[in-house]
Amino acid sequence: MSTATTSLDRLCIDTIRTLAMDVVQKANSGHPGTPMGAATMAYTLWTRFLRHNPSDPAWPDRDRFVLSAGHASALLYILLHLTGYDLPLDELKRFRQFGSKTPGHPERGHTPGVEVTSGPLGQGFGMAVGLAVAERWLAARFNRPGHTVVDHYTYGVCSDGDMMEGVSAEAASLAGTLGLGKLIFLYDDNEISIEGDTDLAFTEDVGRRFGAYNWHVQHVDGEDVGQVARALEAARAETARPSLIVARTTIAYGSPNMAGSAETHGSPLGEDEVRATKEALGWPAEERFRIPPEALADFRRALADGAALQADWEARLDAYARDYPEDAALFRAWTAGELPAGWQDVLPAFSGEEKPMATRAASGRCITVLAEVLGNLVGGSADLAPSTNTYMKGLGDMDPEHPGGRNMHFGVREHAMGTIVNGMAIHGGLIPFGATFLVFSDYMRGAIRLAALQRARSIFVFTHDSIGLGEDGPTHQPIEHLASLRAMPNLTLIRPADANETAAAWGCALQADGPVALVLTRQALPVLADVGRIREGVPRGAYVVADAPSGTPDVILLATGSEVSLAIAAREQLASDGIAARVVSMPSWELFEAQPQEYRHEVLPPTVRARLAVEAASPLGWAKYVGNEGDVVGLEHFGASAPYKVLFEEFGFTAENVAARARAVVQRLREM
Amino acid sequence: MSTATTSLDRLCIDTIRTLAMDVVQKANSGHPGTPMGAATMAYTLWTRFLRHNPSDPAWPDRDRFVLSAGHASALLYILLHLTGYDLPLDELKRFRQFGSKTPGHPERGHTPGVEVTSGPLGQGFGMAVGLAVAERWLAARFNRPGHTVVDHYTYGVCSDGDMMEGVSAEAASLAGTLGLGKLIFLYDDNEISIEGDTDLAFTEDVGRRFGAYNWHVQHVDGEDVGQVARALEAARAETARPSLIVARTTIAYGSPNMAGSAETHGSPLGEDEVRATKEALGWPAEERFRIPPEALADFRRALADGAALQADWEARLDAYARDYPEDAALFRAWTAGELPAGWQDVLPAFSGEEKPMATRAASGRCITVLAEVLGNLVGGSADLAPSTNTYMKGLGDMDPEHPGGRNMHFGVREHAMGTIVNGMAIHGGLIPFGATFLVFSDYMRGAIRLAALQRARSIFVFTHDSIGLGEDGPTHQPIEHLASLRAMPNLTLIRPADANETAAAWGCALQADGPVALVLTRQALPVLADVGRIREGVPRGAYVVADAPSGTPDVILLATGSEVSLAIAAREQLASDGIAARVVSMPSWELFEAQPQEYRHEVLPPTVRARLAVEAASPLGWAKYVGNEGDVVGLEHFGASAPYKVLFEEFGFTAENVAARARAVVQRLREM
Questions:
Q1: Which among A26, A272, B615, B628 could bridge A627 via Cys, Cβ 3.0 to 4.6 Å?
Q2: Is A414 an active-site residue?
Q3: Angle at CA B348, nearest 5°, toward B345 and B352?
Q4: Does residue B329 sit within a domain?
Q5: Are residues B205 and B131 in the same domain?
Q6: CB contact residues (below 8 A), chain B span 189-208, against chain A
Q7: Is residue A44 scored above 90 in pLDDT?
Q8: For residue range A499-542, what is the model confidence (pLDDT) as tens digits?
């Protein structure tokens, strides 16, 4: 491979730069400096290393490219257009406009060739680690001597901002421990961030830090095609460690008056400076969106090259299918996101005779049986596996010597866990999950949000879901977390009421069209016996657990999770007072809202206005279901450290108090 | 200072260890291993270095001690008891029980001598950085040649888990850039986390990493009093860099069968092993909560020493007050959290004639004038100062050469910013703030929550508060953030509707008894002219901006922030249809809920059931105010990338649509 910078290289690189200026200038919004500064290294990577097929962005064995510095989206759109993806120049001219394929930050599923949604700094970096984990796991699972069907790199470009975020630090540390040799990041070290020179806030030695993480670190001049290419070659040659190529670059390179200035970070250069820059680059100053044919032809080689690469891979997959038909079928099914026939049959049914069981424990039993039939269920916890009941016994730990281990040890790194699970989900082929305590969902909200935005099929297992965790106290007791997760679009939250609802919740999680949060107890709960009703009810989000004898209740008790059995007990007490209560278990608001109105009215008849919600959490949001005349037994303050039964007593989560509050609601309505 | 381990040292250390076992065993809950492993280094620090006065935990110039590994709370409670704080042995016997002073994790304000609430890993580390920033800033501001009134260290103990969290990485990097020479952390490197050996997930070279951050790093045997003491001396001698002392320790040191095992991390040792450990330590095996008198006497020297240290400091402060009376008065006022007389008079009043102004811009003007009268207003942004309008011109940048600079550059480190602001607020003497985009409040939720739990007076400035930020698109557009922050107890969220409400919001923020989130627009908004009404209304959380001519509205339009002017415009349209609408601006739900019912009913008369809320965000929670018959113009999906006016049109945030939706509500009620 030649590594000298040719005049064609220069032309291609300047094509990227001038387009970046034009794209941002036309939108009068965006970030021109980073695309201009990173143009050389991106060009080198995309034209000499990246194995992709612009005609089929879904080719499973393509190299993945992650622009963690998502604000440089113009760079990615330009590369996609130039190499022949289905992204016409007109779309570049509609940068950041409503309905265009070129939004402000890259969005997976919206623009062909965009692998991950990025922009919130550090997220792309973490997802790239997840992509690399997925590739290595699938390679370990499927490749055989003489047969290589999974074999791609994960490349990324990251910025100073990515490097400052804690999530990338967590992900980098874990990537070093895992020894992800096929993960290669180009670090656009331009020493400029929005407030000015990075020295204001960021004087650390990033290369040394990554060395401490067990990364292979190189330093290059980011304007030198040869240096960048040689570093990429060396990075590929290093198979035991992930690689960081620290590329010194100049933001807005080429701009005579603004190169190296923070002003070019987030604003267009202005018409005059665009013109001056084009002149300095020897470019027609007045022409916009100019793409010299020689440059385009060079970039578009990717079409023929990519088709050949993919054809070769498909031939290899066919050969594999002849020698390993079952594995090939499995690879195709997993890659297509298919679940094996009958998978749901393994979900355990728990008898009402069983001892009370924590939903985290029931979840553990589900994971154990699901892991048998779903050979691609891979996941772990942020150093809480014994507490979250997520360890899959006998299925191995993932480490450099055992890349096909099913259990991951994320360490105390919730945020990176979220991003890595997202990356694994987005890669395809795996069903990934990550677990921690519900309170620490706060640490990973950035990742949960990006899962929701991309509809990544990430499964998050959140245990210790209320004051019911007891002695650990208010620092560990979620109060606001249910409401705050319910507020997030596209996320399905399920808080099952017992072991059987937990099994049904796992069934929903595996079929969801986006991320799912399973919210589980630490403490034991009675087992609800009616498995049939539960398996029908949970996927509908809410259902009647126990009804008024007549079917026309005086009051409806709505509850989720551990509070459902409390509501059932309160119903008994109310019955002895002659008040007929219906108990509605409502494990998932999102699933319930997706039901037809007819069903929703069947469960919550509009005529029954006496309603009481019971949830050991912030009441925010329940007013929608209990209405003006209803009430909520919730928590508007933080918890406390004590055995959980004491806390439930102290904070009013007793059958007596629920019944009393329900009576008050009924009474108030009668007096109205 | 002698550094040999004496038999008295051994006795004292074993007193800590045996108490730790007993405390956890009695509670039958908690973490014995870390207190036992960290006993030697904690003993060395507390008896030979820590300058504190157990009789006055509020002495302003005490050294601060932060147990970032908050799960080792038993260690801290034992040290507090032994050195003579107001924490009787009976409270240790009530560890983790309801109402005790010894909750599962340390809680500031709950237990005398606990400096910060910790437990969620990494938070304590970040707050310690904030404490050290505050000390250095106050020292730069007040100390004079011959007068040293601010001069203390910030010590901490952190764990493997703390080191894995991204927030500590962010905070450590910034601490290195700032060169915080008086910040000293003992890192309890016991190589064990909950899932087992840290090698499972954490193989990085932490010392090398901290070296890359510009920390002074030493390695010691954590069981050797002399090594720990010499390292602490060297750390104090190093004035230009923060210090990390990597102490190799053994979890559950002393336990014959369980030392070094992950099982001792989060569970009691069990009666048998407690007995065996006491025997191995040469301790009476059956005795519980034994404190040998010689050991107690040694620890309790802290009482006399502390009183002398504080008396000496008070004499120095008196001398200072003679030479610098104004500064001494200011020091005392700031330390007491007092605001200068008339400070509110400087808040700008904006005329209705002014051009539309973004609330972030109005906030910037408030900060400028407040910074003049509040000499201790110190803060900055996570690399977004030009966008959040938080830079205080002419007041200097904080860096190692200018420790008294008023502007901080947190870098792209939202989570660390939150923890550091919390630490600064908790230290006392400063009014700290931190700023970023509202969407990135997700990255710092862990810190916001701890601010709320401790009622730390942290001010968080969150700009770019809705789809109104426009082109940056859905990755940057908050949808769920208002609801998710409103769900958090103790946090006051204020979303002002214009420049004048913004000034009033700043007035509230400076008087709040806990953290405040100011939520501000990127886009310009019309200025509402009635300054008097606004200054009365905002502190009450909601008020009538424009009423029905009769005072009895047909419909109430509730809105916050940028949607208030939209509601006002809709009111005009409704008026022309003969529908009389009241517009209620509701900048803060929390402040409104704190009002007497009479006021709340005055603003939202229960008889007016036709209500429409308008907020460019998730509607979650609004049902409480609009009731069964009301409606919400909100967003139940993510945003999009486009100029904001287009987005407001596309997503129904127009006066026409608001008026139409209001008419529908009125109509529906009339038909009922």
A1: B628
A2: yes
A3: 130
A4: no
A5: yes
A6: 193-195, 198, 200-206, 208
A7: yes
A8: 999 999 999 999 999 999 999 999 999 999 899 999 999 999 99
ipTM higher than 0.95? yes
Please tell me whether residues A587 and A516 are part of one structural domain. Answer: no
Residue A315: inside a domain: no
Alpha-carbon gap, residue A458 to A450, rounded angstroms: 10
- Nearest residue on chain A to B401, alpha-carbon basis: A200
**Is A313 part of a structural domain of the chain?**
no
Of A105, A208, A442, the CB nearest to B208: A208
CA distances from B499 to A287, B526, B530, B559, B623 (A): 43, 8, 11, 16, 28
Give dist(CA B273, CA B514) in Å, integer: 44
* Last residue within a domain, chosen from B282, B307, B332: B307
pTM for this predicted structure: 0.98
Are A516 and A573 part of one and the same domain? no
CATH code for position A362: 3.40.50.970
pLDDT at A449 over 80: yes
Contacts of A413 in chain B (CB under 8 A): 164-166, 201
Contact across the interface for B487 and A618, Cβ inside 8 Å: yes
For residue B213, give how far its alpha carbon lies from the nearest alpha carbon of chain A (Å): 5
Angle separating helix axes A445-454 and A123-142, nearest 10 degrees: 70
Q: Does a structural domain hold residue B333?
A: no
> Looking at chain A from residue 502 to 561, which residues have their Cβ under 8 Å from any Cβ of chain B?
none
Tell me: do B592 and B487 sit in the same domain: no
The number of distinct structural domains making up chain A is: 3
* A94 lies in the same domain as A168: yes
Each residue's pLDDT tens digit, B581-603: 999 999 999 999 999 999 999 99
Determine contact: A387 vs chain B, CB below 8 A: yes
What's CA B53's distance to the chain center, in Å? 25
Tokens of A258: 């603004």
Residue A69's nearest CA partner among A189, A173, A217 is A189
| Contact between chains at B475 and A445 (C-beta distance less than 8 A) | no
Burial (Cβ within 10 Å: 0-12, 13-18, ≥19) of residue B329: exposed
Task: Among B165, B170, B450, select the one facing A412 at the smallest CB separation.
Answer: B165
A609 contacts in chain B (CB < 8 Å) = 628
For residue A105, the distance in angstroms to the closest alpha carbon of chain B comes to 6
Residue B490, token pair as written in the block: 């103790």
Q: Are A387 and B117 inside 8 Å of each other by CB?
A: no
Q: Collapsing DSSP states into helix, strand and coil, what is residue B344?
A: helix
Question: Best mutation site among A164, A407, A625 for testing chain B: the one with the most B CBs within 10 Å?
Answer: A164
Give the nearest partner residue to B213 out of A204, A439, A609, using CB atoms: A204
Residues of B assigned a catalytic role: 414
Q: What are phi and psi of B470, to 5 degrees?
A: 80, -120
Pairing of strands B555-559, B64-67: unpaired
Residues A605 and A629 in one domain: yes
Statement: residue A1 has pLDDT above 80: no
Residues B487 and B556 in one domain: no
A214 with B203: Cβ contact below 8 A:
yes
Last residue of a domain, one of B283, B307, B331: B307
Give A130's contacts (C-beta < 8 A, 6+ positions apart): A419, A420, A421, A422, A423, A424, A425, A426, A427, A432
User: A153: distance to nearest CA of chain B, Å?
Assistant: 23
Whether residues B487 and A479 touch (CB distance < 8 A) is answered with yes
Domain holding B390, by residue range, is 343-525
| Helix (H), strand (E) at residue B35 | helix B33-37
User: What is the distance in angstroms between the Cα of B107 and the nearest Cα belonging to chain A?
Assistant: 8
State how far the Cα of B197 lies from the Cα of B193, in Å rounded to an integer.
6
Could you say which of B167, B484, B486 has the minimum Cβ distance to residue A166?
Answer: B167
Give residue B1's pLDDT band: very low, low, confident or very high (50, 70, 90): very low
Cβ <8 Å between B193 and A383: yes
